[in-house]
TrEMBL record:
Domain named Alcohol dehydrogenase-like N-terminal: residues: 27-147
SUPFAM superfamilies listed in its UniProt record: GroES-like, NAD(P)-binding Rossmann-fold domains
Recorded family membership: Belongs to the zinc-containing alcohol dehydrogenase family.
Name under which the protein is recorded: S-(Hydroxymethyl)mycothiol dehydrogenase
Top-rank EC class of the record's enzyme: oxidoreductase
Length: 366
């Protein structure tokens, strides 16, 4: 056992605290990882606010990269000294999804059990089975994905959640390819990552939609070919117009990715898709939201697919090393997502900035 500093949310809506945490030695199938960097994700804020899950106290942080310090009995996936990005999809290999070969949909993930405690022995809930605003964390070995150690930790760690969710919505769920058009509604960290994914896939045009001009600028840097300020113009009409300019007869985008998580923007995505186009929902709705009232004939008549994308339908063992490789080659600018590097004591301030929406990602660097 060792004692380290980590950031917890002690109770619903209470400001986070930096406290001492007991990290046990890794047991069978576990690893202790020295955290080098961890991004501040909206989900951490949701945990701190309560509502989605009320197992306080939470150990926050789940978008991280670091070096394996030690491993428990029987661990073969990683060894001490390996540079890893942590994932919250440690596939079980046994559930129905895994058995039919769809490991990215595993619904019985073997993420870490709750074994870290406060100094007085109180059990902690690590966010998404990780808990990485901490000097060292205990995870399941399957949550460690080995990647090229030359990658900058602050950039690499972002693949652990938000950036992967966005890129994966484009390349995995939306299955974008060359010759297909894409529109992304909402260009925060997740939406801009979806734009980057669409660019990697060779999609064109790539239309970025947001109500904030600064976000549209960030989207252009990531590969958007067109931008639409939906506070000023009707985004559905604009998407249709731009796509028809490129592909004669197009009535919208082949893939429309919704990265806000609201019924209005979901409806825009729905009507901006081309005939037989795909709508991908990656923005997380709140539990009280329902599908907007739509004529069933509009669902039926246009054909296509309505999909939700959970963690970008990623398979960490396949997608993390691939994206790090593209980053190392200069084809994916992960550094551009890192708006600022902050200390572990600044998580609360980063949550504040998130409310104002002026950063893509604040990243805690240790
Ligand atoms: N139309 C278009 N864009 C909008 C609208 C709207 N009506 N309302 C908000 N936006 C934009 C914001 O301006 C912002 O750029 O959506 C973006 C949301 O981005 P962030 O708040 O930075 O959130 P992000 O981290 O990108 O996550 C987006 O995905 O994973 C989920 O929980 C996350 O639901 C959230 C979503
Ligand atoms: Zn499984
Ligand atoms: Zn997250």
């Amino acid at each position: 056992m060792q004692q380290v500093k980590g950031v917890i949310a002690r109770a619903k809506d209470a400001p986070v605290e930096l406290v001492t945490i007991n990290v046990p030695d890794p047991g069978p199938g576990e690893a202790v990882v020295t955290i080098q960097a961890c991004g501040v994700c909206h989900t951490d804020l949701h945990y701190r606010q309560g509502g989605i899950n009320d197992e306080f106290p939470f150990l926050l942080g789940h978008e991280a990269a670091g070096v394996v310090e030690s491993v428990g009995e029987g661990v073969t996936e990683v060894a001490p000294g390996d540079f890893v990005v942590l994932n919250w999809r440690a596939v079980c290999g046994q559930c129905r999804a895994c058995k039919r070969g769809d490991l990215q949909y595993c619904f019985a993930t073997h993420n870490a059990k709750q074994r870290m405690t406060l100094e007085d022995g109180t059990e902690l809930s690590p966010a998404l089975g990780i808990g990485a605003f901490i000097e060292k964390t205990l995870v399941a070995a399957g949550q460690c994905t080995k990647v090229d150690p030359e990658a900058r930790p602050a950039a690499a760690g972002l693949l652990g959640c938000g950036v992967m969710a966005g890129i994966g919505a484009a390349i995995n769920t939306g299955a974008l390819t060359r010759g297909r058009s894409a529109a992304v509604i909402g260009c925060g960290g997740v939406g801009v990552a979806a734009v980057a994914g669409a660019a990697l896939a060779g999609a064109s045009p790539i239309i970025a939609v947001d109500i904030d001009p600064a976000k549209l600028e960030a989207a252009t840097k990531m590969g958007a070919t067109h931008t639409v300020d939906s506070s000023r113009v009707d985004p559905v009409e604009e998407i249709k117009r731009i796509c028809a300019e490129t592909y004669e007869g197009a009535e919208g985008a082949d893939v429309v990715i919704e990265a806000v998580g609201r019924p209005e923007t979901w409806k825009q995505a729905f009507y901006a898709r081309d005939l037989a186009g795909t709508v991908v929902l990656v923005g997380v709705p709140t539990p009280d939201m329902t599908v907007p009232d739509l004529p069933l004939i509009d669902v039926f008549g246009r054909g296509g697919a309505l999909k939700s994308s959970w963690y970008g339908d990623c398979l960490p063992s396949r997608d993390f090393p691939m994206l790090i490789d593209l980053y190392r080659q200069g084809r994916l600018d992960l550094d551009a997502f890192v708006t600022e590097e902050i200390g572990i004591e600044d998580v609360e301030a980063a949550f504040e900035k998130m409310h104002h929406g002026d950063v893509l990602r604040s990243v805690v660097v240790l």
